[in-house]
Q: What sequence folds into this?
């Protein structure tokens, strides 16, 4: 007992001294009270968070147990990752953008006794922290019921993946968030980049064999079909912002691209088109492109296409 009392007696002066020292120190500012109330919220994003997209996906199918057989989410994540975006399914993860998606597979027309087509519809809305509806896209695809169909589900999924608004979705997101472009302007920029941007030169690492090389790159696989369908879409939209690129594409090395461009230009009433189409009809090296150009001259309005009749 005496030992305990002695320890207490020794520590009491030290305690009083410590209290005195602390009281003598200048008062520190209440730093926690001075911090903005939104520190730590999603509004204080570091650069990596600004490239993070929360995927709010609702995907359903009429097929067994309502499951979507197509790997929609993994495909979308892969496409976004190729553009430096990080896609997350966790709402609580720090993110600057939200992509809300409703993906639906519904039973289509009956093809045979026990075979039905599949129709795909997909609504995609991109929102930011301070602005909703940066992009509002709708995609609908069906198999070609008029033709011979042996694998309608595969066909419609392939068509979906080559749809301009899905294939170029990362381009559209980037164009919208960095340049404020609408979907049509984004498609024009994406198509030009896809067809004219030089691919990086191969490096020694590119020669290494990896498991991924046993599967074709899906973007490369669908690139030709997606480019042609984008040209068709620009023709359908009849947005004059696309005419310069479409005219440029009449000289593209790929005859399929030239053919699609000629057919798309039929929808525009721009004076410069007539001379371009006339030249294509006379000089293109591919007979199908020349014939399409001749047909286009007949379809062009008189104010645009009259020159070829002189």
A:
């Amino acid at each position: 007992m005496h030992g305990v009392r002695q320890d207490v007696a020794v520590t009491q002066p030290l305690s009083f001294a410590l209290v005195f020292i602390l009281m003598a120190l200048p008062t520190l500012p209440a730093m926690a009270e001075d911090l903005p109330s939104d520190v730590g919220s999603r509004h204080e994003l570091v650069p990596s968070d600004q490239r993070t997209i929360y995927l709010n996906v609702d995907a359903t199918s009429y097929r067994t147990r309502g499951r979507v057989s197509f790997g929609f989410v993994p495909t979308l994540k892969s496409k976004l990752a190729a553009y430096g975006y990080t896609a997350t399914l966790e709402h609580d993860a720090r993110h600057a953008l939200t992509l809300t998606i409703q993906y639906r597979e519904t039973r289509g027309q009956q093809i045979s006794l026990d075979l039905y087509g599949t129709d795909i519809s997909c609504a995609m809305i991109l929102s930011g922290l301070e602005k909703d509806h940066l992009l509002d896209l709708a995609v609908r695809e069906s198999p070609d019921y008029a033709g011979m169909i042996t694998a309608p589900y595969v066909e419609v999924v392939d068509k979906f993946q080559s749809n301009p608004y899905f294939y170029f979705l990362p381009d559209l997101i980037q164009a919208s968030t960095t340049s404020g472009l609408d979907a049509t302007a984004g498609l024009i920029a994406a198509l030009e980049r896809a067809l004219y941007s030089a691919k990086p030169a191969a490096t020694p690492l590119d020669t290494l064999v990896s498991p991924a090389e046993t599967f074709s790159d899906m973007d490369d696989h669908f690139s030709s079909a997606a480019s042609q369908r984008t040209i068709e879409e620009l023709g359908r939209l009849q947005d004059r912002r696309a005419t310069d690129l479409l005219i440029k594409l009449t000289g593209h090395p790929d005859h399929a691209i030239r053919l699609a461009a000629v057919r798309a230009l039929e929808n525009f009433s721009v004076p410069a088109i007539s001379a371009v189409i006339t030249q294509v009809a006379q000089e293109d090296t591919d007979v199908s492109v020349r014939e399409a150009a001749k047909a286009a001259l007949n379809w062009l309005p008189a104010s645009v296409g009259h020159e070829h009749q002189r």
